[in-house]
Task: inverse folding
């Protein structure tokens, strides 16, 4: 069947099971937009290309399927670089299609030409400039395969205008679909080495103070059930990193919560005092380890990761296993049982009592606001948490509100926490929440945002209103770049340089209404619950609530940058 490159591209996306594209058209990609009219694929028209990328990320995190974004050349392509970098850091499967100037014009500094392949080489799992229309089906097939296998990540496909333009002879091609993918040198290892798995099992059964260090790879591998089975088999406590919240229910007796710079005391200290860390799909990020030389000094390491480059990159493991987290955990459970688990392990009652003592002595706490004072962000989040379905999907921006949300929300289900971890991208929350709601329309989706983050990508609520995507946004408005203010207060002698944003400029309620949303402003504790209940009852448009919060409130516990986790501060002036 004779066709053209543009039609072939859309058909290839259909065959990959794509149901939604987030994008914004422009000159170079315009020929591909014409066949979308006749396609069952839904296109979400964003207001900025960064929004398209973050929506695709939210969609991918909520569904487990690859997110797809399509933008034009030049500034369209460069505007989506930040989401690509974000997806690369957090191992999110994306396929990003960018328009490019015509083949003959490449390298001439043509209108809206940029070398997007060169620009994104260091932040994509793979990228490629397609120069022949006949290559499009193969390249798209390969792009999805690469994005979703092994360690997931973003793949960029750059498409010159002439090979997708039906009026150009270079676009003519015979349709085909490659049923298999042949990529020499790309063979991700998914099953663990049996000898290493047995060695890991023996280390686990010999340890007296073990901790499972669960990272985002658990969720990428859809390994939450396997993780829980392993923890329950051995009765071993589990910490869940910022990217792994919900991998085991927060109210499970073995869940210690989040470790790291703003983790809770028990999670941080249990890792620090352990004699064995079972690192599953985690990468020993600096925000978790603190000062590396002082991190878990007595702990041996079992490290499981799909990416062999992670093994030994930061901390040398005693046993390093390359493989898919779910498959390796399942193999590890078999090996443990063969060695006599759960009976063949030391008495760990003293370790459990120690952990229980920490939990009792050092819970997360805050002081409620006095009458007439601004809201405490923790109170807002607790009220929101307790008055939404337990499978609500929560997307956060980056900063204090992100840490408060991770600390005070109770995650009982995997795949319900969507945030920017590695890149720490402000402006992530609103578009990511929209993408998550598109992918999971059956779920309630709340975006928890700060006023600084909200101002970066709020325009995407126009997209949500126009497309009838009823996300809900809670702005914790403290009139500051809160996390920066906290650091300036603690480490820069309260010299608040360029962090004040103003509580009233803009007027968030009016701004929300101007974008087709329901807008509310909440200033006192007794108004919080009624506003949340009203927001939850609205399902035909987005809702934005401006919660006026106390700028003096800081995120604790905290491990100051460059310090050991043993120097964790419980609160102001405490350690």
Result:
């Amino acid at each position: 069947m004779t066709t053209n490159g543009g039609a072939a591209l859309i058909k290839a996306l259909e065959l990959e099971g794509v149901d939604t594209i987030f994008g914004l058209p422009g000159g170079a990609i315009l020929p591909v937009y014409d066949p979308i009219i006749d396609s069952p694929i839904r296109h979400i028209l964003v207001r900025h290309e960064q929004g398209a990328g973050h929506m695709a990320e939210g969609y991918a995190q909520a569904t487990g399927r690859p997110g797809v974004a399509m933008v034009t050349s030049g500034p369209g392509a460069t505007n989506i670089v930040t989401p690509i970098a974000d997806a690369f850091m957090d191992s999110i499967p994306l396929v990003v299609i960018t328009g490019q100037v015509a083949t003959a014009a490449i390298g001439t500094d043509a209108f809206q030409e940029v070398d997007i392949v060169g620009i994104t080489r260091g932040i994509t799992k793979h990228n490629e400039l397609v120069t022949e229309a006949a290559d499009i089906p193969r390249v798209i097939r390969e792009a999805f395969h690469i994005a979703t296998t092994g360690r997931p990540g973003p793949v960029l496909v750059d498409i010159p205008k002439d090979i997708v333009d039906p009026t150009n002879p270079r676009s003519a091609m015979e349709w085909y679909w490659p049923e298999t993918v042949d990529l020499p040198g790309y063979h991700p290892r998914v099953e663990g080495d049996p000898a290493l798995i047995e060695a890991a099992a023996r280390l686990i059964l010999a340890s007296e103070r073990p901790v499972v260090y669960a990272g985002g790879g658990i969720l990428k591998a859809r390994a939450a059930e396997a993780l829980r089975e392993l923890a329950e088999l051995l009765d071993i406590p589990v910490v869940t990193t910022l990217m792994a919240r919900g991998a085991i229910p927060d109210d499970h007796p073995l869940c210690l919560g989040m470790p790291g710079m703003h983790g809770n005391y028990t999670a941080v200290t249990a890792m620090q005092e352990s004699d064995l860390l079972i690192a599953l799909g985690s990468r020993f990020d600096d925000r978790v380890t603190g000062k590396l030389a002082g991190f878990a000094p007595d702990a041996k390491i079992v490290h499981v990761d799909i990416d062999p480059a992670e093994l030994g990159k930061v901390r040398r493991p005693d046993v390093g296993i390359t493989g898919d987290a779910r498959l390796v955990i399942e193999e590890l459970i078999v090996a443990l049982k063969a060695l006599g688990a759960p009976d063949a392990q030391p008495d760990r009652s003293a370790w459990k009592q120690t952990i229980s003592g920490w939990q009792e002595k050092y819970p997360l706490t805050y002081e409620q606001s006095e009458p007439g004072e601004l809201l405490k962000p923790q109170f807002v989040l607790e009220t929101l948490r307790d008055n939404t379905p337990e499978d609500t999907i929560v997307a956060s921006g980056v900063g204090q509100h992100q840490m408060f949300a991770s600390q005070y929300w109770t995650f009982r289900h995997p795949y319900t926490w969507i945030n920017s971890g590695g890149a720490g991208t402000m402006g992530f929350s609103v578009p990511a929440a929209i993408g998550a709601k598109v992918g999971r329309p059956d779920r309630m989706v709340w975006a928890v945002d700060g006023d600084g983050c909200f101002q970066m990508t709020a325009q995407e609520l126009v997209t949500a209103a126009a497309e009838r995507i009823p996300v809900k946004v809670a702005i914790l408005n403290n009139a500051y770049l809160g996390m920066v203010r906290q650091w300036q207060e603690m480490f820069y002698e309260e010299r608040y340089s360029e962090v004040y944003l103003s509580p009233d400029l803009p007027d968030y309620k009016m701004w929300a209404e101007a974008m087709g949303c329901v807008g509310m402003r909440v200033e006192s504790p007794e108004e919080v619950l009624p506003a949340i209940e009203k927001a939850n009852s609205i399902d035909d448009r987005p809702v934005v609530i401006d919660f006026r919060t106390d700028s003096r409130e800081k995120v604790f516990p905290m491990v100051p940058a460059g310090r050991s986790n043993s120097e964790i501060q419980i609160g102001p002036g405490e350690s």
